Structures are given as structure tokens and as C-alpha cells.
Amino acid sequence: MKFATKTALVVALLASLVSFAKFDHCRNSGWGVPDQYVHACYSDLPALFSARGLTTHTWPYSSATNSVEYPPGTAMVMWGTSYLVAHNANQYRNYFDINAFLIALLFIGSILLLRRMKPDLWYLGAFAPAVIGSMYINWDMWAVLPAIAAIYYFDKARYELSALLLGLATATKFFPIVLLLPIALILIRRHQLHNLMKYILISVGSTIAINLPFALTHTTGWWRFFKLNSDRGADWGSLWHALSVFGFNVPHLNLDSILLFLMGVTAYILYFLKLERVPSLASSSFFVVAIFVTASKVYSPQYILWLTPLAVLALRDKKDRAAFWIWQGAELLYHLAIWEYFAGFEGAKFGLPAHWYAAAALVRISALGYFAWSITRKARPSTALENPQNPDFSPRRVGGYA
After folding, report:
1. CB atoms within 10 A of CB 24
2. Can you give the pLDDT at residue 89?
3. Which of 248, 295, 377, 379 supports an S-S bond with 261, CB 3.0-4.6 Å?
4. Please, which pLDDT band fits residue 44 given cuts at 50, 70 and 90?
5. Residues 52/78, Cβ–Cβ less than 8 Å
């Protein structure tokens, strides 16, 4: 094993352990309220273990009103790991530990892959404080790793494998579907329409193939994920929730969130088309995901696990690190703010008022926008290339430029 790989492995393992230590207070105290919010160690892992009937191995989509609110990939992980838990007084902690162990392995794998893709700046993904704080909140890493792998193999022109991985990621957490936009733009500009059609067919087809058995056999329970996303109002962490706290209510939230996403996507497309040379998917993916989470009706703290590796890949050079850390600082501020805000709801002596929480959300959104702007303003046409120091991303190996 090369020294650089060993270093990445050790750093990723250390970050995983530090994150686990952050959640250890709740492991030992049983995730009581408001304690779990005061100590910022809330996790969906034990919460949904009970709430979705996984303590008795209930099928994830058996209920119309209490089914797992995730696509099948995540649902099967939640359900399958419940069989590894011993039924004793520590079953909630055991369930957390089992899932945390698997999530740690996925995180380590993502850092090792990030090192191959961004050999000069990969460590930022492991040292990001908001990532360390959020690693074990939810099962997102099950989708993050295949999504990063899909990007990696796309830029190596292994389109079929990339499409399969993207389909798997989308069937686990729906967000990777937005990566089809930069993929389409890249292949269109390279005049590879046949590859684009094949890619869409494989990625969308594999997502449908994974979902179809659940949709046909437990339609109502499977559909609950989509219904909840459609029916939800302005939820925690979103731009829309922050605006509502300050008295700016949005009457047509679904429409307005879609319009904001389309406006952002339009700006992104115009920016993309102005580049003289076609950028890699690795350097392009961050922007469309950032637009997606900004326009979304909810922003959960673990979404930082999606954004950070893509942000590292989008960095032009080491000079962009200052903007990266400013953004990460704002994400950490929000990470602390949401838990202290919830603590106030649950009767904690010291809780964060709603206006301060909403202000933290707006600071986070502004910092994300600043980071994206700091990268795009440096993207002169002559420099919008794949990393020239990484031979895996040479023009010949990714199919050439338009």
C-alpha cells in the first residue's frame, strides 16, 4: 500500500473516531431529551429504529402511515441491520453501533476515492468539521460513496459502470438524480449523444428496477417517501423556513422551490456553456447539488456529507481553501444552532431563539453561495480543465473535448 493511501486511511479513520466520540454521550445516556440536543448528538439511527418498528423487524414499507421515509436502498439497510441487534437493554445503542461501523467504512472508502480524484486537497474532506459532526446522523453515506464513485468512473469514460453506480445511489437517496444535468451537458458538448442516451437508460433503468418490486408489492408504503416530500411545508434549515421566521411567508412553496431550482439551474447552464473547454464531472457536480439543497424545502445537517466531497473536487487550487473554510465554519455554526434551537423546544435551560436559528440558516446559505462564487469567478475559459496534475483526468482518457 502506498504511503499516500496509508495516510488517507489513517486520517479517515481518525475523523470517523472523532465523530463517534461526539455521539458517545448520547450512546451512554440513551438519547434522552433535551439532553441529545444540548450535546448535539442526536441521530436518526436509534430514533427510527424504534419509530419505524425496526425493533420487531417490521417490513419497511408495510404501513401507509409509518413506512420508512427513504428509497429502497436505505430502507433495506435499516431493515437488514435490525437483524444484527441483540434484543436486550442496549438494543438501541447496538443498532447505532452496527450502523455507525458500516457508515465509517463507507466514509473511509469515500476519502480513499477522494484522494485518487483530488490528490492535493483530499484531506479537506476528512478534516471538515461539519462533516465530522454529522457523520452518524443518518444513512446518507450509503448514497454518497456510490455517487462519488459514479463521478470517478464517468471521468474515466467508464460510462456503463458510472451509470449503474448513479442508479444505485439514486435508489438509496434521491438527490444524486440531479447529477444527470452536468452529465448531459458534458456529453452533449462532447457530441456523444449515443453515450448520453445509453447513460440515461442505464442509470434511470437501474433506479426503476430497484424500486419496482417495492412499488408493485407495497405501493402505498413505498409512495410515502414521495408524498412526504411533496406535502411537507417550509422545513428545518431551508431558505423558506428562515424567511417564514422573519415574517416572509411563501404562499406557493412547491412551485416557488421548483422555480428557484430552475433559475439556479439556468444560471448554471449558462455558466457551463460559456466555458471554452469542457470541465470534468468532478469539477462540475458541486454546483448543481448546491443549487438543489438551496432550493429544497428542507436542509438536514447531514446534507453536508453530500456537499463537502463535491466541493473539494470543485476547488481550482489551494488558494480556494480560505473560502472553503469560511463555508465550513458557517456549516458548523448551523450544525450547533439547530440542536440548541431544538433544545429550547424540549425545555432546556438555555435554548437558541427562533430568530437566531433562522439567522444561522441564512448565514449558512450565504456562505455556500460565497464559496460557489469564489470558485466560478476564477474559472476563466483557459483554466476550466480537469486537474492537469492528475493523469486520470487527461483529455484522452475522458473521451476528449468539444
Report:
1. 12
2. 80
3. 295
4. very high
5. yes
Taking the C-alpha atoms of residue 346 and residue 393, their distance in angstroms, rounded to an integer, is 51
Q: What is the rounded CA–CA span in Å between residue 75 and residue 171?
A: 10
Q: How far is CA 89 from CA 36, 55, 84, 97, in A?
A: 19, 12, 15, 14
Residue 356 confidence class, pLDDT cut points 50, 70, 90: very high
236-278: pLDDT as tens digits: 999 999 999 999 988 899 999 999 999 999 999 999 999 988 9
Are the C-beta atoms of residues 314 and 286 closer than 8 Å to each other? Answer: yes
Tell me if 289 sits within 8 A of 310, measured CB to CB: yes
Q: Is the pLDDT of residue 385 over 70?
A: no
pLDDT, mean of residues 60-89: 94
Q: In terms of residues, how long is the chain?
A: 402
Say which residue, 78 or 87, is predicted with more confidence: 78
Other CB atoms closer than 10 Å to residue 359's CB: what's the count? 18
Q: Which amino acid, residue 87?
A: H
Please, are residues 304 and 107 in contact by the beta-carbon 8 Å criterion? Answer: no
- The residue ranges of DSSP E strands in 49-207, in sequence order, are none
> What's the grid cell of residue 164?
449503474
Angle at 239 between CA 238 and CA 240, to 5 degrees: 90
Q: Where are the domains of the chain?
A: 3-378+387-394
Most distant CA atoms of the chain, gap in Å: 62
The pLDDT value recorded for residue 379 is 62
Rounded alpha-carbon distances, angstroms, from residue 93 to 33, 58, 68, 231, 268: 16, 19, 20, 32, 44
- Is the alpha carbon torsion for 36, 129, 284, 77 positive or negative? negative
- 385 CB-contact burial (10 Å; exposed 0-12 / middle 13-18 / buried 19+): buried
Cell for 25? 454521550
Residue 384: how many other CB atoms lie within 10 Å:
21
Q: What is the grid cell recorded at 72? A: 429502497
Q: How confident is the model at residue 28 (pLDDT cuts 50, 70, 90)?
A: very high
